[in-house]
Design a protein that fits this description.
The complex is a heterodimer of chains A (167) and B (213).
Chain A: H1 2-5, H2 9-28, H3 33-49, H4 60-81, H5 97-110, H6 115-126, H7 131-138, H8 142-162
Helix pairs in contact in A: 2-3, 3-4, 6-7, 6-8, 7-8
Chain B: H1 3-11, H2 22-42, H3 57-79, H4 87-104, H5 118-122, H6 124-151, H7 157-176, H8 185-206
Helix pairs in contact in B: 2-3, 2-6, 3-4, 3-7, 4-7, 6-7, 6-8, 7-8
The chains are: A mainly alpha (167), B mainly alpha (213).
Chain lengths: 167, 213
């Protein structure tokens, strides 16, 4: 901190990083998760603005803890002022059933394929990578990836057609 | 903005800062008090009999107790601007000192003043003027202590503001004590206390509003 008071930016950066970790742990025990980052940044700003008030004759910990406690009280006050909407008993939420079912069915279908085929289909057809990008990730040539996709899709088609509950 | 980018912003182009010094701040308050006393007495408002009363216990009590209270309260106020300070104990000490000073007034009552009616001794019309004068004389000290408080980092700004108000009120009363023509300790206790309390209340109400850590 003394180096920071003398204008040493590197030392100050290291100090603020260590303070940030300590402050995150401090506020995580005292505030809702959504307010922790705000409180940490507010405290870092206060430390920066008031760094001239630190007296090197005394330990840094109590100085930082006093500022953090003040900011914690500020956050609690702002939490108390924040309007709270009461949630209705039957709140409407979006229906994710179709996507969840699709994801589950796809995973079970891919389990039926050879790993190289499943990985190629997942990368190119589901996640949108190009054949070249996928070949780099899998470690096969582009033509081998294309072949795996072709054979994998043919196998999937056969599985689906044989399944009794396909609509 | 994430904490990491904030840290990078804060640590880049970091300028050296001058460390806060309580001794320097105390010296500033003392210098302002001295300038105010000199200017005020330079206006020619000092009691004409001040040299005659120089050794009297009454004047010693009035000036001595107010001066001691002003010094102690200023030290406590400046100390309370530190983030790790606990101003509550200091405020209790200042209040105890004020009560002791008031109690001391019982021993220095001038001859004959105890025989007058209570209302005559208090003299509200002139007393209000004295309290208002103390209020006005304390304003420069309040302003200076408020500026020092804003630059520092008190974590209990309301108590620090109250301590600043008491200190400034005591300084204002100390300066005014050299020109106040009234000798009755009851009058001094009532109206000087009213003046100091008004300054303390105004500081307690106003100073924390301008402060943000």
């Amino acid at each position: 901190m003394v180096a920071a008071q003398n204008g040493h930016g590197g030392a100050y950066r290291r100090l603020l990083s260590e303070m940030s970790e300590w402050l995150t742990r401090y506020f995580q025990r005292r505030l809702p998760p959504g307010d922790v980052d705000d409180a940490v940044q507010e405290t870092l700003l206060a430390v920066h603005r008031r760094r001239h008030t630190y007296d090197p004759q005394y330990p840094l910990g109590p100085w930082l803890a006093a500022i953090a406690k003040n900011k914690w009280i500020d956050q609690l006050r702002s939490l108390a002022r924040r309007p709270m909407d009461e949630l209705p008993d039957e709140i409407a939420v979006g229906d994710h059933e179709a996507s969840v079912v699709s994801s589950s069915v796809l995973a079970s279908l891919l389990d039926e394929l050879r790993p190289a085929q499943a990985q190629a289909i997942l990368l190119v057809k589901v996640q949108g990578y190009s054949v070249e990008e996928a070949s780099g990730q899998i470690g096969l040539s582009a033509s081998a990836v294309k072949m795996n996709i072709h054979r994998g899709l043919a196998r999937l088609t056969a599985i689906i057609e044989k399944a009794p509950d396909v609509e | 903005m994430s904490s990491e980018s904030l840290i990078v912003d804060l640590s880049s182009d970091l300028a050296p800062v001058q460390r806060r010094s309580m001794l320097r701040e105390g010296g500033l308050v003392l210098a302002l008090g001295a300038v105010e006393l000199t200017l005020f007495l330079g206006l020619g408002v000092m009691r004409p009999d001040i040299s005659h009363m120089a050794g009297s216990p009454y004047l010693m009590w009035r000036v001595g107790s107010l001066g001691l209270l002003a010094v102690v309260a200023c030290v406590l106020a400046i100390r309370s601007f530190s983030p790790t300070a606990r101003p509550r104990r200091g405020l209790m000490l200042a209040c105890a000192l004020a009560v002791a000073a008031i109690a001391g007034g019982a021993f220095v009552t001038p001859d004959g003043s105890g025989e007058q009616a209570l209302l005559d001794r208090i003299d509200p019309a002139r007393g209000m003027l004295c309290a208002a004068s103390i209020f006005v004389l304390s304003l420069p000290i309040v302003a200076l202590l408020g500026a020092l408080m804003r630059r520092a980092a008190p974590t209990q700004p309301r108590l620090s503001a109250l301590a600043s108000g008491i200190a400034a009120g005591a300084c204002g009363a100390f300066v005014f004590a050299f020109c106040c023509p009234f000798n009755d300790p009851l009058y001094v206790v009532v109206w000087y206390t009213v003046g100091c309390a008004a300054v303390a209340a105004a500081a307690r109400w106003r100073l924390p509003r301008r402060f943000r850590l």
